[in-house]
What does this fold into?
Amino acid sequence: MTTNKKKLLISDSMGKAGWDLLAARDDIEAKSFPHLIAPADLVLRIRAEGGVDGVAIGPIRFGEAELAEAPRLRVVARIGVGYDSVDVPALTKRGIPLMVVGIANSPSVAEQAIFFMMTLARRGAHFDALVKEGRWPERLKVKPVDLLGKTALIVGFGRIGTRTAKRCLAMEMAVLVYDPYVPAESVRAAGYEPVGDLDAAVARADFVSIHCPKTPETLAMFDAARLRRMKPSAYLVNTARGGIIEETALHAALVEGRLAGAGLDVFALEPTPTSNPLLKLPNVVTAPHMAGVTVEAVARMALAVARNIMSVFDGSPIRENVINQEVLG
It folds into this structure.
């Protein structure tokens, strides 16, 4: 029996499948912490443990303060794929890999994007209210639209964007893809139309679905100027990260009739306050950052997180899940 166990602190948002996998190892001791813990409290938790060998986190901030309390830390695993809240250069400087869950939740996020598109196009919330409020006679005042024959613009052609594009194609939509980091030939080979000018592309699209990471390059990518280029009949969907869309500009576009509607799983501030004016609009459908959180995705992510951590401890990190590849040598 191994006595020098590796200590892990893991967000309680990780699914049971991951805990079970870690529990089968006699060289690992894993403890949970609340996924909504304040960063300062996470620092205290690490200190109380006398440091840790690995952590698995949700969207909480993680950087220098946490690292200072964990001199023997070997791996940081995200229970997800986004990592804008993690100080990657600080990890890289220490030679610590940041690992994400790969494709574990991408099908679920793609399905949420399609759900938003269909709910907006078919006016799901509006018609649901008509029936429940006894306003059936009003049903013909505003008609829904088809996805058939419409043009979808996929912004970001990674794990999630590729799956969303595939689902749009199945709905018999024309699919444009904007991703300056993916060769146009690869996009064409997949059956879609690559576009290099985002402004020109948004002017053509009936649906725009955002699937790029939040970076200095993509922050406020959809500002007032870009939103003005969209069709008044178009819909904007964001299942990526808050801040990529300027919320004030989006609100103005929706109120002024320059955009037909929006589906938002993410917000600039989360939880977004109930006073957010976007929440008052009938042409906005929302979710509380749940696109990648389904029963199945939680299980897949939990297994991926546990395997990521164990791969580092076993000396063979799963390379495709490491964000800062330079630490692998």
The two ends are 32 Å apart (CA to CA). The longest strand covers residues 6-11. Residues 183 and 189 are 10 Å apart (CA to CA). The chain has two domains: 6-104+295-328, 106-286.
